[in-house]
Amino acid sequence: QKEVEQNSGPLSVPEGAIASLNCTYSDRVSQSFFWYRQYSGKSPELIMSIYSNGDKEDGRFTAQLNKASQYVSLLIRDSQPSDSATYLCAVNKAYGQNFVFGPGTRLSVLP
Amino acid sequence: GAVVSQHPSRVICKSGTSVKIECRSLDFQATTMFWYRQFPKQSLMLMATSNEGSKATYEQGVEKDKFLINHASLTLSTLTVTSAHPEDSSFYICSAIGQYSGNTIYFGEGSWLTVV
Predict the structure, then answer these.
(1) Which residues contact B75 (CB under 8 A, 6 or more apart)?
(2) How far is B88 from chain A (nearest CA, A)?
């Protein structure tokens, strides 16, 4: 079992819809969780971090964490074509050294 | 967020030569830096992890003599691709984390290497 798993996609949603991206992780001691967005040909950029169970909202983005289920998700409301990118889930088991990235989910928002 | 700068953004070199890529943390001290390689339409592949002042830890299958990593200061790490070959052509990305980066990894802009 991979440490961090994501559906590779592509996930296609129409413009204006809610895009839901999911990520599961295997190590229960994981403490910090991150979502990065990577446009084609560019390096990843941080979207959100979440550390506690529940929801965290930032603009059109909402991260959801459920440590009991070892599950973290990212919701993108009012999806725009400019949101089309690969979304990487990252998990940090302990401070600094144990950062693990998922393979990424490719999102396509259709005009 | 914190800023990580990578240079050069694009480089073309001849087969058999060496090329150096720099990664700098501009507004925080990077205790740990990571180097990745990414081929088109593929996932990030971690090559090595470097801590300031110590030798880098390479992932399995990555040749440490070919990909030389130096992390001599808390703000600078370098990756040198030695005796480059066309199959080394790829997108190389660094990232950094430090005490004041909020327990978060920040990425450099990436460097496109083309070996001809």
Answers:
(1) B24, B25, B26, B29, B30
(2) 17
